[in-house]
Amino acid sequence: MFSDILGQEKAVNYLKKLVCQNRVPGALLFCGPDGVGKRKTALEFAKALNCEDIFARQNGEACGACASCQAIEKGTHPDVTLVDFVYQARLNLKNNTDEEELEKEVAKQQHLSVDTVREVTAKSQQKAVRPGWKVLIVDQAQTMQREAANALLKFIEEPPAKTVWILITNKRAAMLSTILSRCQPLLFAPLADAQVAQLLQTCAPDVTDAQRAARYGGGSVSGALRAAEALEFLEEGNFGTVTGPAQVTAGLSRTAATARKEAQAILDVLVAALHEKWSVCAEPERAALQETLHKFEDYKRSIGRNVSPALVLETALMSLDGLNLRI
Questions:
Q1: What is the pLDDT along the chain (327 residues), one digit of tens a residue?
Q2: What phi, psi does 103 have (nearest 5°)?
Q3: b/e per residue 58-70 (b: at least 16 CB within 10 A)
Q4: Of 192, 219, 295, 306, which sits most exposed with the smallest number of CB within 10 A?
Q5: Are 86 and 93 spatial neighbours (Cβ–Cβ below 8 Å)?
């Protein structure tokens, strides 16, 4: 239910008002950092619009228990479509149900293609199966290729009655201005550390120190999960010791793409720790920390340019020598 979404009261209250009025813009743009509840909010909004409990809808809510709410929760509602890389991978595999093949196909996805967009726009024109609203949610909308975005334009400008498009993005500036001009924007803010920690305790109970992960998560649940993994790498690699740089990098995955993500997450945690120290230290020490922070931005860019992540990470860790950095 909407009450389960933490830290997004302004966005939630606006959506509840739309449900109560039963008047919804043809296209909404949910924009904000990853891991702050955009996708969950979109699905809860779809539930509220289609809930069979009239009293819940009058309050802008979903009951969560009716057949419609349960179908949306399970991803089986015929009038609610969630378009993401998993959806696209299933299309590419012709709905092959082999989980291993699906996982491999999902890993290949980088952009939402024009074929995927055309498939879902065709679905948007079909008659609704149930009473209520047809809801089409496009996650990672900024990854649409130009041809795909152009194929979507006329459908979000004039959707059929009781049809709403919800585009979700973490990079509003990367989207076509023609798409942005046709959507009602709804901003999602970073979460407070306490809210991230609370959500981690619910969705990721295996994270041993939710508060510390949240501290380095940048106001995001997904960021905190990456931080938790990075902190584990640093601890297991004896960060802060003479042998730490070599031990931490030795723990990276042997798969280049995975190692790059792991190294990037570790660098993000170290940058956050450097900022933390910079904010409380005296002026003479700030200059050295400022120089190190500039170096770390270069290290992060190097990983993005396909330089060996192990080499970059080891160099970055060695550059911390003498700073007595705590995490």
A1: 788 888 899 999 999 999 999 889 999 999 999 999 999 999 999 999 999 999 999 999 999 999 999 999 999 999 999 999 999 998 888 866 678 888 888 888 889 999 999 999 999 999 889 888 999 999 999 999 899 999 999 899 889 999 999 999 999 999 999 999 999 999 999 999 999 999 998 888 898 899 999 999 999 999 999 999 999 999 999 998 999 999 999 999 988 888 999 999 999 999 999 999 988 887 778 888 888 999 999 999 998 787 899 999 999 999 998 888 888
A2: -60, -40
A3: eebbbbbebebbe
A4: 306
A5: no
Amino acid letter, residue 324:
N
**Joined tokens for residue 177:** 């201005």
CATH topology of domain 2-187: Rossmann fold (3.40.50)
Record the pTM.
0.86
Nearest-angstrom CA–CA distance, 4 and 286: 41
* Domain map (residue ranges) of the chain: 2-187, 193-318
Question: CB-based contacts of 276: which residues, under 8 Å, 6+ apart?
Answer: none
